[in-house]
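A quick aside before the break. I want you to see a complete sequence-to-structure record at least once, exactly as it would be stored in a machine-readable document. Don't worry about memorizing anything.
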Amino acid sequence: MEHILSQIKTIYKQMKSILIFIILCSVVFHSCKDPKNQEGNNQVNENRDTVLTDNTFQDSRDTSVNSYYKKSHVSIRGYVKNGANADVIIDELDIGQINPLESVVVDQNGGFKFDIDIPEPGIYQLRFTDKNIHLFLRGGNIQITTDISDIGSYSVTGSPESVHLQEMYLILREINNQTYAVQDRVEKLQKDKSKVKQLLALVDSLPIYYAAINKKKSERLIKFIERIDTSMVGLLAAFYLDVDENYDFIIDTRNRFEKICAYSKFYIQLNDKISSIVPVGPGKMAPNTVVDDANGKSVYLSDYLGKTVLIYFWTSYSEPCRTENLEIKKIYDNFHSRGFEVYAISLDEKKDPWLRAIKEDQISDWIHVSNLLGWDDDISHLYNIGEMPYLILVDNKGKIVARGFRSRELTANLLEFM
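That is the input. The structure line, written in tokens, reads:
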């Protein structure tokens, strides 16, 4: 039972990177509803009656202005089928902020209009009670057509980037649905005590599922970004690509938009994200990792240049990790004499269970290190680790050649890169 409880704890750690992705989506999309329950629609958590007391809302806006842009006028004309007398609010959206600008009431013929000045190209939303339409505005005349019973199925003309934004939402929504499906399977198995074996098997397969979801997400977003070319929505889409797996593409995208909109907030946000991340994907040099051993002595990864090194993240309480230990041990015994080392980084929080697991699994010949900080250890963030066990193979020149695989693939990787 102790192993099972530990595994349940590990499940949520394994979901870490996916949950971060979903949280980021919610930040930019501003309180999107669960797409499983209401596809295409967003929910606003503000008090509607309070918001509607002021028709202009100018006092609530962020007064900061981007001096590199001049104000542009936007004229929005809309038609809402069966929407007579509905309230519509237009909000300016920014990360973590909703700035209401103006409100109108849909007339008896279903029509409404907004005429506003915007300080720079950005994301705005038309808010209908608890449903939203997101737009990317930079000026001009825009027309919106929708139905009050299905606001999310809207059409927009006069704003190609608003169409692109709608497409990006669809891609991310479909990816979210795949993630939700995996999470639902885990939650159902957790509630059924007779399904312990199935739960552990699913936990063991989570890295495979998540890797497949991330791969599909990257493929679809890259094709989307390439297709929409110079649309600034490409910057938003690039923000949701996994940096380690798509570092070069993101850099190329950043550089391309530098010539187009280097002073836009979206370019600045993407550039800041890239600047704060050390690339640790295949083809990149592994950071000169330093972690303490059991005696508190710092052990540098660079000490093993000239050898092929498996950077292996694990914990003593994870059943899949303990199983992986035994498989990696067999491979280690076969390849160690040829210059193969295992740099095993434990994300345990207590020393005794860590050392006991090393002894029980007979893997004391490996290079064992741990800061005993659990998932709070910066080393897991440096390597962008979202699940365990996690394997990263580094060649004898210190370059990462593979990551995110399992022990069953290790022999093939060693034969290819040693």
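Two observations worth writing down. The chain is about 40% helix and 25% strand. The domain at 40-158 is CATH 2.60.40 (Immunoglobulin-like). We'll return to this after the break.
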